[in-house]
Design brief:
It contains 12 helices and 7 strands.
Length: 282
C-alpha cells in the first residue's frame, strides 16, 4: 500500500508540473490521477510531507519568483500565470511566503525556490524505524548530496545551490559533512562543527522526518556542548514543520536573525537538557 501511495502521489506531481499555469485543485488532480479526493489527499500528504494544495501553491510561487527575476513579464501577468485573479491577492501571498513584495523581490535579482519539484521515485518509502547508517561525505558524494538537497530545499530559506556547494566543498575538506543512507538511499544530510556545535545544514527527506534521523545526526556531536541551528521564525507560513521538529528534539528559541534577507531564528539545544531528554526516552 505504501508503494501504491507513492506512485499515486508521483502521478499527481507529474500532472501538476505539466499544468502549473492551468486550473489546479484537489478535485482536478484526483480525477487525473484516477483516485478519490480523500485517498489522494491522504496519500500525497504522507508521501510529500505537505498537502497537495500547499505543494501547488509553493510550486506556483516558485515559478512566479523565477519569472520576476529572469523575465520582463509584468507582475499582473505573472500573478495570472500563478493562478491568482488579482495583483493584490498574489502580492499578499507572495509576501507571506517570500517576506517581501514581488517588486522588491524583482529589484533584488536573487531567485531562490520555495519548493522544487519533488521526485518521489527518489527512493523507496520509509517503513518503521530507520537504522542509522551515517558516513562522512566525500567529493564523490557531491552529486548525490545536491540531488538530495533539491528535495528538502523548502526547509532552507534563501537557498542558493552555488553558495551551498561552495560551503559544502569546504565542509567536506574539514570532514564536517555527513550523509545518512537507508538501503543505499540518501535520506538525510548534515554539516556541523564538533568544535563549535554549529549546525550549518540538517535536512531529512519528507517521508523520513520524525523517524529518528535528526536525532541520530545530533548524537554525533559532543554531548557536553550547546548545539546551535537556525530555522524559520514562529508562525512563518513558509515553514512546513522543521521548526516544530527541532523544538520537539529539545531546542529552545534564541535570538532573531536575518539571513540572506530572510527573517530566521537561532535555536539552541543545551547540553544538559539534551541529556535529560535522552534519559527520558530510555
Amino acid at each position: 500500500m505504501k508503494r501504491i501511495g507513492t506512485e499515486t502521489a508521483a502521478r499527481a506531481i507529474l500532472y501538476i508540473e505539466t499544468h502549473l499555469s492551468e486550473r489546479l485543485d484537489l478535485e482536478t488532480v484526483a480525477e487525473a490521477a484516477h483516485y478519490s479526493k480523500y485517498h489522494l489527499h491522504r496519500m500525497f500528504t504522507e508521501a510529500a510531507g505537505i498537502t497537495l494544495h500547499d505543494y501547488i501553491r509553493r510550486r506556483r510561487l516558485t515559478a512566479a519568483a523565477k519569472l520576476l527575476v529572469f523575465s520582463e513579464m509584468s507582475v499582473m501577468d505573472i500573478a495570472l500565470a500563478a493562478g491568482y485573479e488579482s495583483r493584490q491577492a498574489f502580492t499578499d501571498m507572495f509576501k507571506a511566503m517570500y517576506k517581501q513584495t514581488p517588486g522588491k523581490y524583482r529589484a533584488g535579482k536573487r531567485f531562490y525556490p520555495l519548493q522544487l519539484e519533488l521526485d518521489l521515485e527518489f527512493g523507496p518509502p520509509a517503513h518503521g524505524a530507520v537504522v542509522p547508517d551515517i558516513s562522512r561525505a566525500s567529493g564523490e558524494d557531491v552529486p548525490a548530496w545536491l540531488a538530495f538537497a533539491s528535495q528538502v530545499v523548502r526547509d532552507f530559506p534563501g537557498y542558493q545551490e552555488e553558495e551551498h556547494l561552495e560551503r559544502l566543498n569546504d565542509q567536506i575538506r574539514k570532514r564536517q559533512a555527513f550523509l545518512m543512507r537507508d538501503r543505499g538511499l540518501v535520506v538525510g544530510a548534515a554539516a556541523f562543527s564538533r568544535e563549535t556545535g554549529d549546525v550549518d545544514f540538517l535536512g531529512v527527506l519528507p517521508r523520513y522526518r520524525r523517524r529518528g534521523v535528526e536525532k541520530a545526526f545530533l548524537d554525533c556531536l559532543p554531548r557536553d556542548r550547546e548545539i546551535h541551528i537556525t530555522t524559520f521564525r514562529a508562525d512563518d507560513r513558509a515553514d512546513t514543520g522543521q521548526r516544530r521538529d527541532l523544538l520537539e528534539l529539545g531546542f529552545s528559541p534564541a535570538e532573531l536573525l536575518t539571513e540572506y534577507g530572510y527573517p530566521t531564528q537561532r535555536l539552541v539545544l543545551p547540553a544538559g537538557r539534551r541529556d535529560r531528554r535522552e534519559g527520558e526516552a530510555t
